[in-house]
């Protein structure tokens, strides 16, 4: 469409105006697009971005970060350094927990009149138990529960943008700087988490090893992640404005960071740093660690993309699976209810018509006995009639034979009398 901002060159303005006039004269184009003429100072469309910003600021933008790693790896210190604030640390720091505990705290932060509702989720006691194969279950349960809460709110209200969002938008998986690659518990946990939240591996306390050791550690960790098919979060490169910096950040994964709550004076400024006998490691110095890059990627560049990915990918996948499960559960519950109602109706029928039903069964039994009796009598009568018929037929046959014999005998007597008649002379009378 037409750009309403003032042009720096007269030729560009004339070209745009000529192109606009040609499109306006086209009847097809005129029916689709309403062409606005340049005006000074403008009609106000350019203030749309400011309106959106004011709306986001008024709604208190929410962002939830999960910190996952073994006890003592520096989770609390890292979150304090990321937001340059000291959050209340009420963790037990105990290695005696029987299972992993997920603790969530909410804080409201303000920077230049921009407020954010920050959720900090800490997983306590991770990798402290002797049996570690189920350590991920409380973490997965917490993520699923937040998805369920959001789904219930979404189903109850028509204003989805008003739903309180406690879903995990990013999980910073803190890895110990010592060792060779990822441990078995790291691989198992990452496999369970990468499909449910944006997973970013971070090497904590990177100042404990040399630069070459850190390079080898990064390479081995990424090799383990790729070999095990773990899809960690990748910073988007489809937006041209941030494609270059995100591509460079993707190449540096996992980030090797240093965090500290101590401040040291370096030159004329006071900075977060770790003081050693051999020197000072500045937290926000890019030549010392990837901390600044991690913070920029999370907060300045890709915070909104993390939230969008959580909603459009992880939540939608969980939502579809959960709705299918709810449908099956509803159908099962419905069938169970129908079976229960049927059983109650049968019980009521038996209680109300039990005696009559027994009477009908007795009558049915008597009718069955009578039917069997009549059937038996019928068979006996049929056999008797069959025997009588056979006897009658035999009598008829005998009678016919006697009749035939008598006829033959009578014919023989007639022939004898005729012969005698020829030979017999009637007596002559004497004259």
UniProtKB/TrEMBL annotation:
UniProt-annotated stretches for the region Disordered: 1-24, 412-431
Domain of life: Eukaryota
InterPro entries per the UniProt record, alphabetical: G_SEPTIN_dom, P-loop_NTPase, Septin
Keyword set includes Transcription regulation: no
UniProt feature, compositional bias: Polar residues: 1-10
Keywords of the record: Coiled coil, GTP-binding, Nucleotide-binding
Coiled coil residues, start to end: 346-402
Compositionally skewed regions (Basic and acidic residues) per UniProt: 412-423
Ranges of residues in domain Septin-type G: 59-325
GO molecular function, one term: GTP binding
Family to which this protein belongs: Belongs to the TRAFAC class TrmE-Era-EngA-EngB-Septin-like GTPase superfamily. Septin GTPase family.
Protein name according to UniProt: Septin-type G domain-containing protein
């Amino acid at each position: 469409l037409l750009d309403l901002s003032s042009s720096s060159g007269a030729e560009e303005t004339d070209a745009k105006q000529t192109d606009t006039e040609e499109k306006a004269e086209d009847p097809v184009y005129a029916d689709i697009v309403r062409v606005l003429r340049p005006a000074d100072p403008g009609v106000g469309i350019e203030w749309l971005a400011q309106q959106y910003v004011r709306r986001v600021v008024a709604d208190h933008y929410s962002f939830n970060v999960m910190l996952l790693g073994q006890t003592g790896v520096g989770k609390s210190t890292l979150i304090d350094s990321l937001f340059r604030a000291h959050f209340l640390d009420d963790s037990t720091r105990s290695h005696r927990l029987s299972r992993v505990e997920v603790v969530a705290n909410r804080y409201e932060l303000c920077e230049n009149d921009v407020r954010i509702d920050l959720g900090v989720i800490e997983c306590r006691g991770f990798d402290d138990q002797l049996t570690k194969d189920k350590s991920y279950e409380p973490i997965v349960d917490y993520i699923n529960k937040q998805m369920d809460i959001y789904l219930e709110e979404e189903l109850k209200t028509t204003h989805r943008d008003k739903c309180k969002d406690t879903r995990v938008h990013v999980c910073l998986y803190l890895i110990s700087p010592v060792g060779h690659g990822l441990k078995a518990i790291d691989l198992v946990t990452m496999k369970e988490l990468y499909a449910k939240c944006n997973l970013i591996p971070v090497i904590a306390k990177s100042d404990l090893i040399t630069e070459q050791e850190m390079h080898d550690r990064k390479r081995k960790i990424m090799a383990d992640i790729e070999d095990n098919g773990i899809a960690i979060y990748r910073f988007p490169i489809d937006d041209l404005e941030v494609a270059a910096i995100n591509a460079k950040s993707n190449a540096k994964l996992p980030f090797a960071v240093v965090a500290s709550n101590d401040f040291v004076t370096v030159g004329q400024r006071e900075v977060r740093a770790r003081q050693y006998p051999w020197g000072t490691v500045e937290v926000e110095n890019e030549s010392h660690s990837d901390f600044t890059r991690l913070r920029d990627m999370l907060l300045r560049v890709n915070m909104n993309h993390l939230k969008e990915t959580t909603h459009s990918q992880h939540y939608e996948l969980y939502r579809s699976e959960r709705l299918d499960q709810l449908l099956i559960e509803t159908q099962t519950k419905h069938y169970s209810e129908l079976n229960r109602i049927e059983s109650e109706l049968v019980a009521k029928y038996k209680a109300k018509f039990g005696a009559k039903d027994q009477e009908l069964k007795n009558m049915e039994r008597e009718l069955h006995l009578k039917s069997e009796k009549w059937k038996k009598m019928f068979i006996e009568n049929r056999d008797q009639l069959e025997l009588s018929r056979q006897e009658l037929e035999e009598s008829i046959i005998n009678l016919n034979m006697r009749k035939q014999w008598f006829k033959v005998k009578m014919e023989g007597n007639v022939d004898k009398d005729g012969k005698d008649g020829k030979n017999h002379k009637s007596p002559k009378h004497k004259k």
